[in-house]
Amino acid sequence: MFFLISVTGCATTEVEIRERADSGYYQNHVRSDLVRTQIDETFESVRRIQSTVTYRTYQFELGNLPRQSEVRGANLQQLAVETKVDNHSTAGSAMVLTAAQRGRVGLLTAAHVATFPDTIWHYSGVRVEGADNRVEAISLRENLNQFVFTDDGIELIELVVTDERRDLAMLRTKSPVRSASNLIPLRLPAGDVKQIRTADMIYAMGYPRGVQMVTQGVVNLTQHPIRTLILDISLNRGFSGGSVFTVRSDGSGLEWVGIITSTLGEREHYLAPEDVFDHEYTPDIEYTGRIFIRSTTRIYYGMTNAVDVDHIRTFLLENWNTLRDAGIMVPML
Question: Domain for residue 7, yes or no?
């Protein structure tokens, strides 16, 4: 529909007003105070989580490495030639999905953020599946502390159920939460993934590097069976488990459509000196120390994977009984 308004006075001004029927479901451009308000409120539900895990590693003699069958059940302290303790910390984001049941709150996140194996085997050479491989070292988990940051400090959390294939996990607070913690379940509705189109606008919310952030981009659809959404946002460590929202074209604002799980990248190998120098590095002086092969992960920024809300529904339904037994009554999304 088209209107043309002409105003006559000292000058003539023509203002063109176009009214179009909007048959779309989501938008690829928005200027909305409603969206801004919804983002502010949703950060009561999108929370920062952190894990600290301690492993004790038993190193075996390189010239006389035991086989895996010899390590199982053995006195590792006697078998090892060296023992060391390492602490590792990981940070991520999570969505408060359920209100307090028995005083506890349920949170949804990416599985790799919240899961740590009890035992890590370090094999010599290439591991052969089903074979009795030689083992260089074994690391046993000794301690794990996980917590969520709230408005009133931190609350300890624990893993309830995980799905490594979908990279999803449900956590719960270990004890009844205080009202001052303000862990509010998500108020926004779940979206209809089938109506999402390439180039629809998305907002992602999380805690990269521990900093509360919202970023904006567009969504691309993939043929991957699980990671169906790929986002053109810059993912940094800590954003995993963050939430993805689309913008409805009818003016109702945001809808929740997924969880951030990973980004694309590759592992690079490089030559490096020893970890400890007894002097400052000077480019004019030849380095004569030992050289090691090390590796690092190079992230492809702007290519972020997300699991859509349909897969999240399936994950919750498949684990309904386990969640219920843990006191987590999952809402119908």
Answer: no
